[in-house]
Predict the 3D structure of the following.
Amino acid sequence: MQIIKDSTPKKDGFYMPAEFAPHEGCIMIFPERADSWQYGGYRARTAFVQVAEAIARSEKVTVCASAKQYDNARAILPPHIRVIEMSNDDAWARDYCPTFVRNDAGEIRGIDWGFNAWGGLHDGLYFPWDNDNKMARKLCDLLEKDVYNKRDFILEGGSIHVDGEGTCLVTEACLLSKGRNPHMKREEIEETLKEYLNVSTIIWLPCGIYQDETNEHVDNICAFTAPGEVVLAWTEDKSDVQYAMSKACLEVLEQATDAKGRKLKVHKLPLPKPVTITEEECNGLDICQDEPTRIPGERLAASYVNFYIANKHIVMPGFGDPADEQAKKILQDLFPDREVIQIYARDILIGGGNIHCITQQIPC
Ligand code: KQY
């Protein structure tokens, strides 16, 4: 594996493909962090395994497990899912496994962004995060892909969505937050994204989902479903604080033009009714001094937009809400060539994200 320090994907003719383009596989990480997941990951594992199995129906899945959890992960995951031992601080593959780029000849390379646990010492969610920060490079080595070194720029995979045709969606709340790249102006951040993702248009949504502790990643509020088409997390309840947030995003999307000069078609994806954490669930979480902790009754950032597009399936969360069925039908209509699999994901949500956040695609 070569670490590329003196060039960029754009200079070398590489770009980030859309998630709906074909995949060689998907990377996940086995959950065990006791202040993120109830009972040291014991509850979340059921949902993680279901997600891995659903994705593995149409692409190769690799699960990274710590030395402590390797035997357990190997035992509970089916044999067609590859399990490898790799140190980690938590299980958010989207955010710190590599962002992959490809060229027209089909060669794939990784990008190793800097990771600081969603805000470093400013408003990060745990410390230390050095094992996470090393994963992109280790995975590129394992997968025999050269990797661009961009550790001087803090970026999580969940804070970007691309259409593969030159457009990238981000949120101001996240990318301009003080815990990411405070020394950079908005224009400099744009230039970096353009150079590394090889896009020409950045659409800045103002915000994401209420209470999203990532400083409101885009992957929880809005996602491309096709070139020129997005889904937006939506509520009709004007008394919900999320209404104004989703509306502000809608206004930007309605005004936006993508890199190909198209107006975007916006599909509203309903939100479930507010999901709050119970006292019993909080009791299953360890508390770490000086780190944010969950409080009974706290609203979680539940959204159906946090789905994964596999080669032949859409793997989406369900919350036991009446809107589960409606959201599933909307996605099924938008992806007629893929079967939608809905997985009860409350135990992933408690960790602070959802199915998109725990997966990272490898394009082919
Ligand atoms: O991408 C994500 N949504 C990760 C959230 C991390 C939360 C840590 N508790």
Remarks:
- The pocket of 6-aminohexanamide is lined by residues 36, 92, 94-95, 125, 158, 213-214, 217, 351-353, 357 (CB under 6 Å).
